[in-house]
Amino acid sequence: MKYEQFRTYINELFGQLLINFDEDDEYGYCNFSSKIYRKIGYATNITPEIIMQAAENKVELIVTHHDAWDFVYGMKERCIELLTENNIAHFYIHLPLDYVSFGTCNSLLHLLGADKIVQQSQHIDGTSSIGIGELESPISLDALVERMTNLLDEKVYYQKYNNLQIRRIGMVTGAGNGTNQLREATNSNCDVYITGEKSLYTVQYAKFIQMNLIVGSHTFTEIFGVRSLALKLQERFQEIELVQLHEEHIEVMGDLNT
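== GTP cyclohydrolase 1 type 2 homolog ==
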């Protein structure tokens, strides 16, 4: 797969979403060359550790959801140095991957058992509206918590306010910790709201409106959208090999439900 082929296919997959969001702010290409890329590694985040792991696995292109954040001071510059030193290209795609049909939210909803996507997450007034998925066969919140725990391979936080069966799931992967998103979930008759970060306001408001709440990590609620993109690349360019790069569960601390 050549760089020109890769970029053309990204344009084909994301279309108008790439026009809606600025390159370098919400998606970008780094350290590409005229070489043919045969081995792609993917992860949610780009870090020095991810780049060194990619180098050890002879990965030629890393695909991530996030770029290195500018406010993690110095890390972006170090990542660029390591990409250059190891002759590895990097592509990241943030908000367009959140809102595309195969993206972060819908990928997780489907894996949790949602048979129907009722509402696609969108960018409205500077924030993410919720995605909504429905289960064909409703399950208990405890069963959904167990399903998400197994899927993310990490302990998740949850608040349970009733014993009703869960059919309709509201979701924003990653930093969907806004009270406006919880309000949208309750106004949309969701039985539970799932996201990848929480704050004091998240837990207070969920309790106030009696909305069942499940919170996984930012990294592992979003990895499945990156995997979906990687699989689409492999489907188009069948000669490429995919490697999921290992990320630590550093966002999970202690027993969150005691």
